[in-house]
């Protein structure tokens, strides 16, 4: 039984590490695994569903699934809090290691959690139209990611750092990304609320992890479990306690609390990494959209630089750097919470029939 529990934990850690790598760190343009999971697999699933359901029913399912992540959020968060209120609070009342005032703090954290999510879901990111364009036109064009041109969908001038969001059919100023948990884009007017949502949930998960772990630790001390002797019902043998045995005992005795503890720990670490990423790009005055597109520009510059150096070694004729002739063109693909979404990853494009000196790496004027 203990070996089975340990094996299950190892499998969960491996799955979590794999999902984190694919969704957060891997780039679909350089990683075959990320390309398959983020692009090829979703595309195949959509084609499979289209053959089974037909386009009409698939469209209806897509409309329903627009709120799918929000429903998952409510099920997970409300379900976890119901377990905390039902099973965790009675243990707090009995514990000498977790004070009763944490119950009142828990209610406040719950209200803050739901309020921050509600605000982040309903406060709009802004909408650039012919009438409102002057309200959002704050930035000059960098002529790398943003150039003075018309939005092909709305036929209005595409201001710098903006992007048309296909889900909401809005042209979002200072577009950051589309968030499925909020079912809307994150942009100029709601980015601060998105950060508040993230911060509150990171605190909620880490605080909840500490409280639940303190309850478990308190029981270990009160019952001196690390020095206890346990009876293995399967083998009929008495065994001395160790960390794994005590963990298994507490997890089975407080199964609901243990499940919520593991969930909050995993989500706290994941959301903490995500919040850290956003604080990092804030320090660079960048958006998620710009961060991933600048990675494409850097790959483009490295590729063209290598082509140029090889040509110089081989004595091939090259054209000198000319900023009016040579500039990366970056596709305006969809950007979600974990980067470029399936179907149209942004990438720098340049013709392969001529070798050019790429010159210095383009500068990000918004830093």
From TrEMBL:
Catalyzed chemical reaction(s): L-cysteinyl-[protein] + hexadecanoyl-CoA = S-hexadecanoyl-L-cysteinyl-[protein] + CoA
UniProt-listed PROSITE patterns: DHHC
Residues in Palmitoyltransferase DHHC domain copies: 147-294
Entry note about domains: The DHHC domain is required for palmitoyltransferase activity.
Family in the record: Belongs to the DHHC palmitoyltransferase family.
Entry keywords, A to Z: Acyltransferase, Membrane, Transferase, Transmembrane, Transmembrane helix
Coiled coil spans: none
Transmembrane segments: 6-26, 69-89, 193-217, 258-281
This protein's GO CC annotations: membrane
Name the record gives this protein: Palmitoyltransferase
Main localisation: membrane
Location in the cell: Membrane
Molecular function as annotated in GO: protein-cysteine S-palmitoyltransferase activity
UniProt-listed Enzyme Commission number(s): 2.3.1.225
Highest rank taxon of the organism: Eukaryota
This protein's record includes keyword Membrane: yes
């Amino acid at each position: 039984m203990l070996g089975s529990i340990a094996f299950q934990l190892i499998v969960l850690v491996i799955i979590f590490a794999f999902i984190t790598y694919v969704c957060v760190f891997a780039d679909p343009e350089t990683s075959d695994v990320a390309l398959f999971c983020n692009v090829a697999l979703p595309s195949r699933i959509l084609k499979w569903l289209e053959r089974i359901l037909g386009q009409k029913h698939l469209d209806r399912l897509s409309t329903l699934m627009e709120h799918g992540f929000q429903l998952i959020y409510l099920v997970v968060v409300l379900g976890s809090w119901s377990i905390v209120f039902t099973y965790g609070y009675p243990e707090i009342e009995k514990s000498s290691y977790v004070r009763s005032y944490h119950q009142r703090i828990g209610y406040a954290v719950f209200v803050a959690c739901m309020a921050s999510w509600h605000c982040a879901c309903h406060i709009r990111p802004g909408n650039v139209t012919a009438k409102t364009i002057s309200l959002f036109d704050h930035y000059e064009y960098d002529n790398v990611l943003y150039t003075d041109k018309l939005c092909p969908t709305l036929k209005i001038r595409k201001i710098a750092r903006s992007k048309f969001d296909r889900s909401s059919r809005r042209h979002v100023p200072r577009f950051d990304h589309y968030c499925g948990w909020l079912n809307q884009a994150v942009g100029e007017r709601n980015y601060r609320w998105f950060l508040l949502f993230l911060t509150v949930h990171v605190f909620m998960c880490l605080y909840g992890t500490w409280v639940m772990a303190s309850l478990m630790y308190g029981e270990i001390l009160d019952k001196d479990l690390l020095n206890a002797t346990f009876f293995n019902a399967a083998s009929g043998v008495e065994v001395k306690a160790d960390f794994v045995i005590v963990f298994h005992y507490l997890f089975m005795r407080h199964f609901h609390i243990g499940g919520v503890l593991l969930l909050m720990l995993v989500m706290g670490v994941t959301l903490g990494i995500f919040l850290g990423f956003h604080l990092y790009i804030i320090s660079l005055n960048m958006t998620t959209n710009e961060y991933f597109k600048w990675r494409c520009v850097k790959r483009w510059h490295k590729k063209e630089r290598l082509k140029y150096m090889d040509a110089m070694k081989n004595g091939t004729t090259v054209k000198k750097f000319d900023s009016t002739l040579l500039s990366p063109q970056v596709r305006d693909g969809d950007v979600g919470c974990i980067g470029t979404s399936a179907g149209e990853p942004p990438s720098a494009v340049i013709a392969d029939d001529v070798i050019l000196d790429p010159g210095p790496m383009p500068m990000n004027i918004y830093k």
